[in-house]
Write a structure and sequence with these properties.
The complex is a heterodimer of chains A (about 325) and B (about 280). With about 325 residues, chain A is an alpha/beta fold. Chain A folds into two domains: about 5-170, Rossmann fold, CATH 3.40.50.970; about 185-315, Rossmann fold (3-Layer(aba) Sandwich), CATH 3.40.50.920. Chain A has twelve helices and 14 strands. Chain A has helices at about 10-25, 40-45, 60-70, 80-85, 90-95, 125-130, 145-155, 200-215, 235-245, 260-270, 290-295, 300-315, and strands at about 5, 25-30, 50-55, 75-80, 105-110, 135-140, 160-165, 170, 185-190, 195-200, 220-225, 225-230, 245-255, 275-280. In chain A, strand 10 (about 195-200), helix 8 and strand 11 (about 220-225) form a beta-alpha-beta unit. Chain A starts with 5 loop residues before the first strand and ends with a helix. The radius of gyration of chain B is 18 Å and the shape is globular. Chain B has helices at about 5-30, 35, 40-50, 75-85, 125-135, 155-165, 185-190, 195-200, 215-225, 260-285; strands at about 65-70, 145-150, 170-180, 180, 185, 205-210, 235-240. Chain B has a single domain, classed as Thiamin diphosphate (ThDP)-binding fold, Pyr/PP domains (Rossmann fold, 3-Layer(aba) Sandwich). In chain B, helix 1 packs across helix 3 (about 40-50), helix 1 (about 5-30) crosses helix 4 (about 75-85) and helix 3 (about 40-50) packs parallel to helix 4 (about 75-85). Chain B starts with a helix and ends with a helix. In chain B, the strands form two sheets. A five-stranded parallel sheet of chain B has the order 1-2-3-7-6, sandwiched between helices. Chain B has a two-stranded antiparallel ribbon with strand order 4-5. In chain B, helix 6 links the parallel strand 2 (about 145-150) and strand 3 (about 170-180). In chain B, about 45% of the residues lie in helices and about 10% in strands. Classes of the chains: A alpha/beta (about 325), B alpha/beta (about 280).
């Protein structure tokens, strides 16, 4: 693949917030002492009177956001993914999701690619934590452009939304023109042997894997599953029928995450061979993002291996 | 201070609400009498004296909001909402039944209920968000957040307290239903709050003490709270858990058990006797 521009999805979110702020005076942004890191600071620069810092108090931040939402505002509550989800989970459950409020949660620093900060700061459980809540929508943009679109769409959609964003620069693989609809997966490559579903930075890795698989004579479908909830069940069933083998790829623990969500649909509607690439029931670790992707088996090479195994097992059946 | 007759009227209303609460809980067969009964005068005072609202237009933008953070006290909220015309009285008897608007802990699907609550500690943060939004919109409505003293064990209450004070939310009035008992026993034995007023003061609140069962005292407290500028107010309403029913008063075992038939009838009898005394008193005035 040609050299891509590297921008983080949190930067795309930051741009989206500013764009929203200009369009809609009801947009407010809440921060828990991580205003610059989450890019809420970009919004603050232009709209200081609409930025509310709650200090290091994520539970209070979600509750305050709920109060804003109950008063007709559209609050974006921003923190690192670990804190924005797990630390305030019951507040998200009762004060936001149960009331189906317009509380938008931006969890930056998602996944192990946070890097050197290590396990406490690497959110690898939040997709699971968020998708099990009724009314909640969960979006994991694959690049900065998609993150910007997702931010705008999150504000337009009724109810709570969780946006999972990354800290590190990630290759920009989509364009402004591409359609982004919450709940509608984007098919990036069409093949017949195996279907790869990925979200976030893993979409790029999956495209690299697609190239390698093609060289090895395997024709793969690659699907950008940017919305984990509501899940595009039709896209999953279609891919299962067309290829008979599925690979899920996520920068997240395998328990309850993207692969689990896909399997829940596939196993009931059209069971086929499936392999899951992700973090295997363990915590993260400090390190450089590239080294961590390798260590945790989240590279194109690992995806190729899983895809080939899926194809092999399918043929044996 | 209001006229004696007005006070008697409020007192009579409180007795009627207590009867409704008892009946709701008896019919439901479960629920929380102690912390509902301690709220009766607070609720009556809010909805008959203090707040601006339109029962026929529950989402009226300029309304003052009553946030029941201690959701388990909802029978008291349901009783006053129905009394003030938010929904039909018959619906009270569906409390805790499948399909009822009157969930075991409040849900916003019930007209007049401002927030879903039940998981303790969450109401103050929500109140702050509403108060900040009111300020943005130049809306002068106030937010009244009712919490329990046991609920103050929750860390989020203190996070919210810091926020209310940091943002100088004079449109937030915190009301502590200080009945001094929680599920496992006396608050001072479970997690001693020590001097509550000093704690709240140091968190930036204007603290106002009140007798939570005395209308004159509550009215005075609300009147004072409204005059405070640039800071949130906390009314510490000293109450009795299970107030109004002799055998429930100050009894921790009445936190979360409904009365049986015999207990229900005895309670109603007590309330009717109290009502009769008030009526006679009223006639003399």
């Amino acid at each position: 693949m040609t050299q891509k521009k590297m921008i983080s999805t949190r930067d795309g979110f930051g741009k989206g917030l500013v764009e929203l702020g200009r369009k809609n005076k009801n947009i407010v942004v809440l921060s828990a002492d991580l205003t610059d890191s989450t890019r809420a600071g970009w919004f603050q620069k232009e709209f200081p009177e609409r930025l509310f810092n709650l200090g290091v108090a994520e539970q209070d931040m979600i509750g305050t956001a709920a109060g804003f939402a109950l008063s007709g505002k559209i609050p974006f509550a921003c923190s690192f993914g670990v804190f924005a989800s797990g630390r305030a989970w019951d507040q998200i459950r009762v004060s936001a999701a149960y009331m189906n409020l317009n509380v938008k949660i931006a969890g930056t620093h998602g996944g192990i690619s946070v890097g050197p900060d290590g396990a406490t700061h690497q959110a690898i459980e939040e997709i699971a934590l968020m998708r099990i809540l009724p009314n909640m929508k969960v979006i994991v943009p694959c690049d900065a452009i998609e993150a910007q679109k997702a931010t705008i769409k999150a504000a337009e959609t009724q109810g709570p939304v969780y946006l999972r964003l990354g800290r590190s620069g990630s290759p920009v693989i989509t364009t402004e023109k591409e359609e982004f609809v919450i709940g509608k997966a984007n098919v990036l490559k069409k093949g017949k042997d195996v279907a790869i579903f990925a979200c976030g930075h893993m979409v790029y890795e999956s495209l690299l894997a697609w190239e390698e698989l093609q060289k090895q004579g395997i024709s793969a479908t690659v699907i950008n599953l940017h919305t984990i909830k509501p899940l595009d069940s039709a896209a999953i069933i279609r891919a299962a029928k067309e290829t008979g083998a599925i690979v899920s790829v996520e920068e997240h623990t395998l328990a309850g995450g993207v692969g689990s969500a896909i399997a829940e649909v596939m196993i009931q509607k059209h069971p086929v061979i499936m392999k899951m690439v992700g973090v295997k029931d363990r915590f993260g670790e400090s390190g450089d993002p590239e080294a961590l992707y390798k260590f945790f088996g989240l590279t194109a090479k690992d995806i190729v291996k899983a895809a080939k195994q899926a194809v092999k097992e399918k043929i044996k059946r | 201070m209001r006229k004696e007759q007005d006070l008697i009227k409020l007192k009579k209303k409180a007795i009627a609400l207590r009867k409704d609460i008892l009946k709701m809980l008896y019919l439901a067969g479960s629920g929380h009498p102690g912390g509902s009964l301690s709220l009766v005068e607070i609720m009556t005072c809010l909805f008959y004296y203090e707040i601006n609202y339109k029962a026929k237009e529950p989402k009226w933008e300029k309304r003052d909001k009553v946030i029941l953070s201690k959701g388990h006290g909802c029978p008291a909220l349901y009783a006053i909402l129905s009394d003030r015309g938010y929904f039909k009285r018959e619906e009270l008897w569906t409390l805790r039944q499948l399909g009822s608007k009157l969930q075991g802990h409040p849900s916003i699907d019930c007209p007049g209920v401002e927030i879903s609550s039940g998981s303790l500690g969450q109401g103050l943060s929500i109140s702050n968000g509403m108060a900040l939004a009111n300020k943005m919109d130049k809306n002068e409505a106030r937010v009244y957040c009712i919490i329990g003293d046991g609920e103050m064990n929750e860390g989020q209450i203190w996070e919210g307290a810091m926020t209310a004070s940091h943002y100088s939310l004079e449109n937030v009035c915190l009301i502590v239903d200080h009945n001094k008992l929680q599920i496992d026993g006396p608050c001072c034995d479970i997690k001693d709050m020590e001097i509550l007023s000093e704690k709240l003061q140091s968190f930036g609140f204007e603290v106002i003490q009140a007798d939570g069962h005395d209308f004159s005292s509550l009215i005075e407290a609300f009147n004072k709270a409204r005059t405070i500028k640039n800071k949130p107010q906390a009314i510490i309403a000293n109450t009795i858990k299970g107030a109004g029913i002799s055998f429930m008063e100050n009894k921790v075992e009445w936190h979360g058990v409904a009365p049986n038939k015999e207990q229900y009838e005895k309670g109603i009898e007590e309330l009717e006797a109290a009502f009769k005394i008030l009526k006679e008193k009223n006639e003399k005035v």
